[in-house]
Design a protein that fits this description.
By secondary structure, the protein is of the alpha+beta class. The chain has helices spanning about 25-55, 65-120, 125-135, 140-150; strands spanning about 5-10, 10-20, 125, 155-160, 165.
Length: about 170
């Protein structure tokens, strides 16, 4: 669903369309806006803070100018740097959460495929079956089945083709 804002000028409507913030597109826009703002605040705050601090520490700077520099430092540059740092930190935390959720959903999907195969094949499964059905590499499938075999005390069998069958009871 799109949110639409109208602006009329000389009886003509101009339509601005924005995706809702909770949609995937809206989240990516918000992330982009956060990145741009963080960069802008940091690019403004850090260099100007450095300049202000150097001016304050310079013994040749007049007292009135030092007072102005302290005011500029406390009102403009330090808050800008703090805000840019906070936005950057929140982006890092958001990325960590997204990666964790993605990993968790992938584990749940793999678990579901594993359980369906166990149910369909009367407790017997091969590495190739899991890899094919879960669309993962055979190495990951073998690693997953080995972990599940330890966890659930599976037995191993070898079929006519020489493939190892994991037998879960």
């Amino acid at each position: 669903m799109w949110q639409v804002f109208y602006y009329t000028l000389y009886n003509k409507a101009i339509i601005f369309e924005f995706p809702p913030a909770n949609s995937i597109k809206g989240k990516s826009y918000m992330k982009l806006i956060k990145k741009v703002l963080a960069i802008c605040f940091l690019l403004f705050g850090i260099p100007f803070s450095g300049v202000m601090i150097l001016e304050i520490m310079n013994p040749k700077t007049p007292a009135q100018e030092k007072e102005n520099d302290v005011a500029a430092l406390t009102i403009l540059t330090i808050p800008s740097t703090i805000l840019g740092g906070w936005l950057s930190w929140s982006l890092v935390q958001q990325n960590r959460k997204e990666k964790a959720l993605l990993l968790e959903s992938e584990q749940k999907r793999l678990q579901l495929v594993f359980l369906e195969l166990i149910e369909q094949n009367a407790g017997r499964i091969t590495v190739l079956q899991l890899a094919k059905n879960a669309e993962i590499s055979t190495q990951l499938a073998k690693q997953y089945l080995d972990e599940k075999a330890k966890e659930l005390n599976a037995a191993f069998e070898v079929n006519e083709e020489g493939n190892v069958l994991y037998h879960f009871s």
